[in-house]
Specification:
heterodimer; A: 265 residues; alpha/beta; B: 321 residues; seven-stranded parallel β-sheet; five-stranded parallel β-sheet; 8 helices; 16 strands
């Protein structure tokens, strides 16, 4: 099968994010960048699927030259080739989904796997927009029933299951109060939740090999997409800080505070 | 007059999902600011039970679309029905609670309506045609004010940030319509409910969560939860390890809670987790490590072993009864 996977460039999730004093953006200095963790889970799931069923994983990222780092990371993990949509400047979910739609129409994959959200804007929209734009089925928040530390995890079976006739995938989704299973005809869009898998590390030979794997360059113009944003971020602010609390010496004091000060017990 | 349409959600057991009332509360706030009329939509196989509850929440009308094919929720069948309804109503805003269904459905609906969308809004600003939304980014470390410039605007609501709409108001007009069901490329296979005798995490007044420090032993946490009628939560690490079910996870990628009292036992306080519980009214942290970041957000902290503190806490609370 042919699988198209996204690899957005985001701030390292462990970074401390600070807002500029004028609220126009975040402080960039000292930040490290990574592939969006949910997308990395998507790359891993794609690799497991092609390992089991044969095929190809094509990874796509949108942004300036720097996103090639994230594409190389996915290639080092084992993805076969990459598509870079060269675009600097603002972009919103509508624009991103429209660009990936064009790439999907060009590549004709059986499956597009995206992270359920990116850890910078936390919007959780692109996969669903894409599925509607393409007229395909969607299975969002794909998860795994078993523990990630279990033996099952270690043998790296894909959690997204191809049906016996290879025309659909079965996906377990994390929803409120339980787990829902859907069957999506291919081609389809799947978005990944945290517990789908544990992404592999890129091996040294993988990193070496990634250097010679092809990255195709496209642009919004070449793809014929107008990416003028329809979502304007007017201002950023830090959340109101919680007042620093106190440490109490023992449980009796804690209960007294909860009863007489906070009045919650 | 502009129209705000809020989509309510029926749970698999037939009841109204409580977060829908918070979304209606947000819808009412938006309608007031925008000078708009509030409408509610509900779809399902048999939504009659929830219609009774919805019609006294202060909306002008409740639009009810019932069809056998809508028994099991699928984005592909629900989005076209809602898109037709929103278009016929000439809705300016379409919103829903940020439940799993809201997060799955609203972007697909927005794509159909060629609308821009704001996810998980925590606030509304402005008036008339000039409305902006406040929403969290970077795991709640940043709050952005965003403006949607498409004619139709779609949003999901972080339920913990808006008061639930109260019942008992003048009855709305109930308008039933026959949904046109489109063929779906996806089919529902099964739903496995994770049942718990304890209150739902997002609705509980008290939440007690365990982290790595529990080493997977949740007995003391569960005992205290039962004493207090509290819900049990967990950090991501604990869920990933398979020590407790995934749906107990509190955090950016799990559930967002805002109870009156949140007790974090053996949780260090990663950004991921804090994003899910920082809005709690009172936070108690129990951790052996005095440097754990959780103490920076806790109102009250105890530097000690949770296995020693929790039984003592139970005993002290018993004395109060």
């Amino acid at each position: 099968m042919k699988i198209l996977v996204t690899a957005k460039r985001v701030e390292d999730p462990e970074s401390k994010i600070k807002v500029k004093p004028d609220g126009s953006g975040i402080v960039q200095e000292g930040l490290k960048y990574k592939i969006n963790p949910f997308d990395e889970i998507g790359v891993e799931e794609g690799l497991r699927l092609v390992a089991k069923h044969t095929g190809e994983v094509v990874v796509v990222s949108i942004g300036g030259k720097e996103v090639q780092e994230q594409l190389r990371h996915a290639l080092a993990m084992g993805a076969h080739r990459a598509v870079w949509v060269n675009h600097t400047g603002p972009l919103d979910q509508l624009g991103i989904a429209a660009l990936i739609q064009k790439v999907a129409e060009k590549e004709k994959p059986d499956l597009v796997i995206l992270g359920k959200q990116s850890i910078d804007d936390d919007q959780n929209q692109v996969g669903q927009y894409l599925a509607e734009f393409l007229g395909w089925g969607q299975a969002t928040f794909a998860s795994k029933v078993e523990s990630l530390e279990s033996a099952e995890e270690k043998n790296k079976e894909p959690a997204v299951k191809l049906t016996a006739d290879k025309k659909a995938v079965q996906v377990v989704r994390e929803v409120d109060n339980g787990l829902a299973t859907l069957e999506c005809q291919l081609p389809a869009v799947v978005t990944t939740d945290l517990r789908l898998n544990q992404p592999r590390y890129a091996s040294l030979p993988g990193i070496m090999k990634a250097k010679s794997k092809p990255i195709e360059e496209l642009t919004p113009e070449k793809l014929g997409v107008n990416v003028t944003p329809q979502i304007q971020v007017l201002k950023l602010a830090s959340p109101p800080a919680r007042k620093a609390g106190i440490k109490v010496p023992d449980v009796a004091t804690l209960v007294d505070k909860l009863r007489n000060e906070a009045k919650v017990v | 007059m502009p129209i705000v349409l809020i989509v309510a959600e029926q749970q698999p057991d037939g009841h109204l999902r409580k977060a829908s009332l918070n979304a209606i509360g947000a819808g009412k706030q938006l309608a007031d600011k925008a000078g708009a009329e509030l409408h509610i939509a509900i779809l399902g196989k048999d939504p009659a039970k929830v219609v009774d509850e919805l019609k006294t929440t202060g909306a002008k009308a409740v639009h009810v679309g019932a069809a056998a094919e809508l028994e099991h929720y699928l984005a592909e069948t629900y989005a076209p029905v809602l898109s037709t309804l929103a278009t016929e109503l000439k809705a300016d805003y379409v919103g829903m609670a940020s439940t799993a269904q809201g997060k799955d459905l609203m972007p697909r609906l927005a794509a159909r309506l060629k609308a821009a969308m704001a996810t998980d809004i925590t606030g509304l600003n402005g008036s008339g045609a000039d409305i902006t939304f406040t929403r969290p980014m970077w795991a709640g470390n940043v709050f952005a004010e965003v403006k949607l410039t498409t004619p139709v605007k779609v949003f999901t609501v972080r339920a913990t940030e808006f008061a639930a709409a109260a019942g008992g108001q003048a009855a709305a007009e109930v308008k039933t319509f026959a949904p046109k069901i489109e063929a779906s490329k996806t089919k529902f296979v099964e739903f496995k409910e994770v049942k718990s005798a304890r209150p739902e995490l997002t609705e509980a007044r008290v939440v007690i969560s365990g982290g790595r420090g529990t080493k997977g032993d949740f007995k003391e946490i569960e005992a205290l939860a039962d004493d207090l009628g509290a819900a049990v939560g967990a950090s991501r690490a604990v869920c990933d390890a398979g020590w407790v079910p995934n749906d107990l996870q509190v955090g950016q990628t799990g559930k967002v809670v805002a109870p009156a009292l949140y007790i974090a036992a053996g949780i260090s306080g990663a950004i991921q987790h804090l994003a899910g519980m920082k809005s709690s009214k009172t936070i108690v942290a129990i951790n052996k490590d005095a440097e754990a970041p959780i103490f920076q957000v806790a109102d009250y902290g105890i530097v000690a072993d949770l296995f020693k503190v929790l039984p003592e806490l139970r005993a002290e609370l018993q004395k109060l009864k």
